[in-house]
Amino acid sequence: EDTFCYMRSQLLILVWAYHCGITLGVLRTIGGVRRGTEGISGLYGVDVLLRRSKRGWAWNQFYLMEEYTGDSLQYVGKLHSDQDPGDGSVRYVLIGDGAGDIFTIDPRSGDIHAVKRLDREERASYTLRARAVSNKTGRSLEDWTNFTIKIHDINDNEPKFTKAVYTASVPEMSDVGTSVLAVTANDADDLSYGNSARVVYSILEGQPYFSVEPHTGIIRTALSNMNRENREHYQVVIQAKDMAGQMGGLSGTTTVSITLSDVNDNPPRFPQAGMYQFNVPETAAPGSTVGVVHATDADIGKNAEMDYKIISMEGQDVFNISTNKATQEGVITLIKPLDYESKKTYTIRIQVENRYLDPRFLVMVPFHDTAMVKIIVEDVNEPPAFQRLAYVMEVSENAPVGTIIGSVRAVDPDNNRSPVRYSIDRHTDMDRVFNVHPGNGSVFIQKQLDREEQAWHNISVKAEEFRDRVPVYVRVLDVNDNPPSFAAVYETFVCENAKPGQMIQTISATDPDNPIGGHRFSFRLAPEASIKANFTVRDNNNTTAMVLTLRNGYSRLQRSSYLVPVVISDNGSPILSSTNTLTVRVCSCDRDGNMKLCSTDALALTAGLSTGALVAILLCVIILLMIVVLFTALRRQRKKEPLIISKEDVRDNVVSYNDEGGGEEDTQAFDIGTLRNPEAVEETKQRRDIIPETMYPPLRRPHPVKARDNADVRDFISQRLQDNDGDPTAPPYDSLATYAYEGNGSVAESLSSLESLTSDAEQDYNYLSEWGPRFKKLADMYGGDESDKDS
Predict the structure, then answer these.
(1) Separation of alpha carbons 248 and 7, rounded Å
(2) What's the confidence (pLDDT) of residue 786?
């Protein structure tokens, strides 16, 4: 039946195509104004003649089947003019898209053929132009006319999906028909012609869980109650087929990966049959962890988040349970301390439930679970506990040694009630002022106390079993054991023109004691000073008093100061008093009572010059004197002038000393340049730096050449000689200043042995051995024989 339907549809297409002039188009000219009969060659050789009132050299398009596979050229159509007699005198010309390389025309008959295989998907139509030309005259018989060749589509392209793989998700437990995803496939064939591009979708894999709509490609769920906890991932294969899904159509496939997303359809459950047990020592600190419980939930993500809570009355004030967000565990912690002796076990009931609930599943099962937790308190050997956190004891500072000032008490909280031994922590009582009875905890003093030295003693008493300790604060009570005294050092003065009853000073007192009601001091003049008293004391009854004058005028020339004894008494028990002396200076004052001048000490004090200031002034004076002395001593020292005053005077200078030299090797004793002038020293003149023991004949020397007389030189030497003789700063020893003036071409030769023209062999140094031990070294060096030198 499918084959018959297919053949029938193809036959109808061909009949329609022939009626429309697909396979062949012929243009004839009948003549006159009315011309043109268009003939169509039928499938079975039957000609159909059509009458037209207008000329037939005009058309719009030809049709050509794509993907032609025949052996001969594919025939497109025929161009013919009614002016063509059929004898070859008319030539047909074709230009435009593909003319010559794709489409060819027979110029004599006007037949058009396609020389290449065409593909509609590459190009759907071609536009060309044609005309008829007379071969005899070359005149155009028909004008240029445009026409179109359209490529007829065949089903040669399969549908293609927009994606090779699709990914989608759908909530688990969704209803049947829930939309998952829409897939799309495109066909490159002509949608406007036939069913070549009409696509139909179907599912190849994924049944019975999913289905697809054939015309829209929408994938829907086909099975209810799909549970993610049973299966989470599905692979669905979708097919798209053209020709409306008929046999012979082309198809394409794609894969859709579908994941079931989680919903909260599973309640949390405790795995341990609802019973847990934990042990905790009674010494556990508040906030410490007692134990951890864990409930399981098949869901994931936020659907598996849980909250724990204690639902029983017992233990709610002792324990707390919270959720660890990272592990979803219930952490049981301690709120307050435990006591094994008071309660040994706790049984609490806990509940777990999901934090985020889905109302659709609440009617199915309860979304919470409960469990029992038994907490056992372990006994720990606890240290003794004092009955108080701190003790405050009081004792008078005059209490005798051994007085008990109080007692402490500690009890062992364990069931065995072990005895407690007490002791003082000596780090808190380094001076060992206190002690405690080891058996009953009585605290007593073992050294005398002094409140003024230390008013509070903070000590610690230990219970020896586990070294528990309690602070004990001992306050030393005051007794009146210190008399009052002046509160300050008073510097009091009285004017010489003072009147009787004039106040010159207000005094107050201080007392290191600390009576309960506060200090109250009384002041009075000492009895021994009441006779012929110059001053008196008036008590103000407010711990202060005034010192008043009793005379009319005082003279600092007769008496520069007065000593006023004042008796100060306190209100303690017993009453203590002391006599304090007030020094009053006599000063001269102006009419307003302002001090002008007192005794020497008072003047120094008034000027504001303290002892330190005086010492600083004295040091400054001493430093100035030392600077002046040093400057004077430096000025007295005079700088010695050198022998050669002018730096431009570069003449040789020889200074002779009456000291033994080191021979010719000693070049530091004198300037050897003086030996360079043979005329400076006479032949018979002896050396001035030594005293020879005997006189020796002069050395054999070449005959000196006398220097030429020169008046300038003589005047220069005379002037220098006078200057040296009249110089008061000349050294107190002999000095020889030799000045050489040789000039150019001087015939004088040097007398130095270093530059002598004669050799060592021409001179006789044997006389040196006769000069004594001082010249022994020179005699050994120069006085030996030739054999000695050679050796």
Answers:
(1) 13
(2) 46
Q: Running DSSP on this structure, what letter comes out for residue 480?
A: S
Q: Mention every residue, 6+ apart, whose C-beta is less than 8 A from residue 202.
A: 212, 214, 238, 239, 241, 245
* Sign, Cα dihedral of 268, 269, 274, 276: negative
600 burial (CB, 10 Å; 0-12 / 13-18 / 19+) is exposed
Given a cut of 70, whether residue 690 has pLDDT beyond it is no
Q: Any idea what DSSP says for residue 719?
A: H
Instruction: Compute CA distances 454 → 470, 513, 592, whole Å.
Output: 21, 12, 49
- Cβ neighbours, 10 Å, residue 168: 17
pLDDT, residue 285, reads 93
pLDDT-derived band of residue 253, with 50, 70 and 90 as boundaries? very high
- Cα gap 619→178, rounded to integer Å: 111
pLDDT tens for each residue of 549-599: 988 888 888 888 999 999 999 988 888 899 999 999 999 888 777 888 886
Q: Which residues are registered as beta bridge partners of 377?
A: 280
249 conformational bin, left if phi > 0, alpha if psi -120 to 50, beta if neither: beta
Instruction: Give the per-residue SS3 of 720-783.
Output: HHHHHHCCCCCCCCCEECCCCCCCCCCCCCCCCCCCCCCCHHHCCCHHHHHCCHHHHHHHHHHC
Place of tokens 């309860």: 366
CA dihedral sign, ordered 723, 725, 726, 727: positive
DSSP bridge pairs for 578: 568
Give the separation between CA 8 and CA 5, rounded to whole angstroms: 5
Residue 371 vs residues 43, 269, 325, 374: alpha-carbon distances, Å: 92, 9, 20, 10
Q: Which residue has the higher pLDDT, 669 or 458?
A: 458
**Contacts with 460 (C-beta within 8 Å, 6 or more apart), sequence order:** 424, 425, 427, 428, 469, 470, 471, 472
Q: Out of 31-40, 311-320, 335-344, 384-393, which region has the weakest mean confidence (pLDDT)?
A: 31-40
Whether residue 498 contacts residue 548, with contact meaning beta carbons closer than 8 Å, is answered with no
Average pLDDT over residues 115-127: 84
Per-residue pLDDT at 197: 82
DSSP-derived secondary structure for 167-211: EEEEETTPPTT-EEEE--EE--S-TTSTTTT--EEEEEESTTTEE
Cα separation, 325 vs 262, whole angstroms: 19
Instruction: Please count the other Cβ atoms lying within 10 Å of the Cβ belonging to residue 301.
Output: 10
Reading the block at residue 369, the tokens are 């679970």
